[in-house]
Specification:
Length: about 140
């Protein structure tokens, strides 16, 4: 009887893991932008400003007129209401898969950076924001 309960519990955990993995894959697919230049890092990083789009994405301005779209691996629930942002970096370089983002309200809750896209101009920035906000409206 105990073995049956244990097997049932493991089965439920495996199914839950598969479901969350599928949701994660679907979310990452939504946040893929082939029309943008994808980069692996931001060199000589100094944050001049930032703007949240939703809990999985934000736009960073690192120097005048140079913006980047960051796609996060996990959502930050308070990102839209954050008063400050913390971005890890090593020797002034922010790297995909290595660095993370958190808010000053909850610095221990970190989301790893999964993708970085270079934004060329204000029009591109506005178009991407509208596209991401449309994703949120679908869900």
């Amino acid at each position: 009887m105990r073995l049956l309960k244990l097997v049932s519990l493991l089965f439920i955990l495996v199914l839950a893991g598969c479901a969350s993995s599928e949701a994660s894959k679907e979310r990452i697919a939504k946040y893929t932008f082939p029309e943008l230049e994808q980069v692996n890092s931001i060199d000589n990083f100094r944050m001049d400003g930032w703007e949240s789009i939703d809990r999985y994405s934000l736009i960073l301005t690192s120097r005048p007129r140079q913006s980047y779209l960051l796609i996060l691996g996990g959502g930050l629930n308070d990102l839209n209401f954050a008063q400050g942002l913390l971005v890890t970096s090593t020797l002034g370089k922010v790297e995909v898969g290595f660095d993370s983002v958190s808010t000053v309200q909850d610095p221990m809750m970190k989301a790893q950076i999964k993708r970085i896209y270079k934004l060329e101009n204000k029009e591109q920035k506005n178009a991407i924001k509208a596209k991401i906000e449309a994703f949120a409206d679908e869900n």
